[in-house]
UniProtKB/TrEMBL annotation:
It comes from Undibacterium pigrum. Pfam families: NUDIX. PROSITE patterns: NUDIX. Residues 60-193 form the Nudix hydrolase domain. This is 8-oxo-dGTP pyrophosphatase MutT (NUDIX family).
C-alpha cells in the first residue's frame, strides 16, 4: 500500500468501545510484508483476548499509539532519539484513560513529544503494526508493546524537543528505507516511497 493513498475507515467506528475499534482497524489493515503480517496476527490475538489491552497495568503488554509524521513536502519523517530506549524511533507512546480512540492517542503523543500542535491525520486507517519487546527496568517487568501507527503530515518543520527525547530530527525517507538496525522504521519509509 502506498502511504499517500486513501484508506476509508467508517466514522461509526469512533462510537464503539476502544477494544472493538482496535479489532475493526486491525481486521481492515493490509500488512505490507510477512513480518508485519505476523505482528498483525499477534496484535489481533492479544487485543481480542485482553479486555484491558490498552492499560499499562496489563503486565504481559499493552497497546501503544504512534505517529509516523511526514514533512510538509512528504520527503522526510520526524524521528525522536528516545531517552529510555536510546534509539531513533517514530513518535508515540501509551494511551491514557481519557483517550476515546487510538488515532487521538497517537496525535496527543506526537504533539507532546514534538510541540507541533497542528498535525494533520492523513488517514484514520492503520498505517503500520509492530509488536516489540520492552526490556525490564527497575520499576517495570519486561513486556510487549502492540504498537498501532498512523500517518500524519506536519504543516511546518519547526519542533520542540520534549524531556522524553535526547533530540528530534527530520530524516529523509530515502535514508530511512536503508536502515538495517530498525526494520520497522525502514518498513514505514518504504511504504511512503512505494517500495513495499
Amino acid at each position: 500500500m502506498h502511504c499517500l493513498g486513501y484508506n476509508r475507515v467508517f466514522v461509526f467506528i469512533l462510537t464503539m468501545p476502544m477494544q472493538d475499534q482496535l479489532i475493526t482497524l486491525l481486521n481492515a489493515h493490509q500488512a505490507s510484508n510477512a513480518t508485519e503480517a505476523a505482528h498483525l496476527r499477534q496484535a489481533l490475538e492479544f487485543i481480542s483476548s485482553t479486555a484491558n489491552c490498552c492499560s499499562r497495568s496489563t503486565q504481559a503488554g499493552h497497546v501503544t499509539a504512534s505517529a509516523w509524521i511526514l514533512s510538509p513536502d512528504r520527503q522526510a519523517a520526524l524521528l525522536t532519539h528516545h531517552k529510555k530506549l536510546n534509539r531513533w524511533l517514530q513518535l508515540g507512546g501509551h494511551t491514557e484513560d481519557g483517550d476515546t480512540n487510538i488515532q487521538d492517542a497517537a496525535a496527543r503523543e506526537a504533539r507532546e513529544e514534538s510541540g507541533i500542535a497542528d498535525l494533520q491525520l492523513i488517514s484514520s486507517a492503520l498505517f503500520d503494526v509492530d509488536v516489540h519487546p520492552i526490556p525490564a527496568r527497575a520499576n517495570e517487568a519486561a513486556h510487549y508493546h502492540y504498537d498501532l501507527r498512523f500517518l500524519f503530515q506536519a504543516r511546518h518543520i519547526h519542533f520542540e524537543v520534549s524531556d522524553e527525547s535526547h533530540d528530534l530530527a527530520w530524516v529523509p525517507l530515502a535514508k530511512l528505507v536503508q536502515e538495517d538496525d530498525n526494520a520497522s522504521v525502514s518498513r514505514m519509509a518504504g511504504k511512503c516511497l512505494g517500495n513495499i
